[in-house]
Write a structure and sequence with these properties.
- The protein is an all-alpha fold.
- It has one domain: MetI-like (MetI-like fold).
- The chain is built from eleven helices and no strands.
- It has helices spanning 2-30, 40-49, 51-85, 90-102, 105-116, 121-144, 148-156, 161-172, 174-197, 204-213, 217-245.
- α2 crosses α11 and α3 (51-85) packs across α6 (121-144).
- The longest helix is centred in the N-terminal third of the chain and has 35 residues, at 51-85.
- The radius of gyration is 22 Å and the shape is globular.
- The two termini are 15 Å apart.
């Protein structure tokens, strides 16, 4: 398995390198101006020259994304647990959750900024709203799809509903939790950036907005590259954690 993963990582690196080379060659051959599409080499120069600026902006955005992700995961997991123990509430609660998910967060972000100011709180709330629904749906699915034979076994032991939940359903839902995290973690970064566009004093979203306002595409693409790298690193970290937490599976769920 480790050899396959190493090969997959090398293939991804080769594909990214090949894409960057094609991009660089196309920009140079077609003589595309930097204000339309900067070459990767130009973006790399901007990153190196402004490493401190992008590092500070990344820490702000990552902090907001992490706080929102934790809040969204806790809310989704608690609500999924409640619906598992009280299945009669599922219809009404899921309808409200779908309504929240269907509401454009780009429209909500300015309202939260107006209500709570330009601090960290509206960014965390937007990120939590963006990550809440995938966590709720995945964990609820995992809790409700426990092996029926194991459920019957626990019942034969006269296990209470609480014991079944903590000793059977919750461990069985772990792969679904990690699947939700792999979806929600990149969404948390996007949510933090979108929230920063509506008003912030720092962060990658603020950096991107200023670069766009000034038509400074090398700075804009540099922020995009940093955001993409953070998303990829987060996914790899979660994949590593899943292989150790869900050790009883031969191949962890994606």
């Amino acid at each position: 398995m480790s050899a396959a993963r190493t090969g997959s990582g090398r293939a991804a690196l080769l594909m990214a390198s090949g894409f960057a080379l094609v991009w660089e060659a196309a920009v140079r051959v077609l003589d595309v101006p930097a204000y339309l599409l900067p070459a990767p080499s130009r973006v790399a120069q901007v990153l190196v020259a402004n490493a401190g600026l992008y590092a500070r902006a990344s820490l702000i955005t990552l902090g907001e994304a992490l706080a929102g992700l934790i809040l969204g995961v806790l809310a989704g997991a608690l609500l999924a647990s409640l619906l598992t123990l009280r299945p009669g509430l599922e219809g009404g609660v899921m309808t409200l959750a779908i309504l929240v998910k269907s509401t454009p967060l780009v429209a909500i972000a300015p309202l939260l900024t107006l209500w709570f100011g330009f601090g960290v709180l509206p960014k965390v709330l937007i990120t939590a709203l963006m990550t809440f629904f995938p966590v709720l749906v995945n964990i609820l699915s995992g809790l409700n799809h426990t092996d029926a034979a194991l459920v019957d076994l626990f019942r034969s032991w006269n296990a209470s509903q609480r014991e079944q939940f903590f000793h059977l359903r919750a461990p069985s839902a772990l792969p679904y939790l990690f699947a939700a995290l792999k979806i929600s973690a990149p969404l948390a970064l996007i949510g933090a950036v979108v929230a920063e566009w509506t008003g912030a004093s720092g962060g990658l979203g603020r950096t991107m907005w200023l670069a766009y306002s000034n038509l400074n595409l090398p700075y804009l693409f540099a922020a995009i590259f940093v955001l993409a790298a953070a998303g990829a690193a987060t996914y790899r970290l979660l994949d590593w954690a899943e292989r150790r937490a869900v050790f009883w599976l031969a191949e962890p769920a994606l």
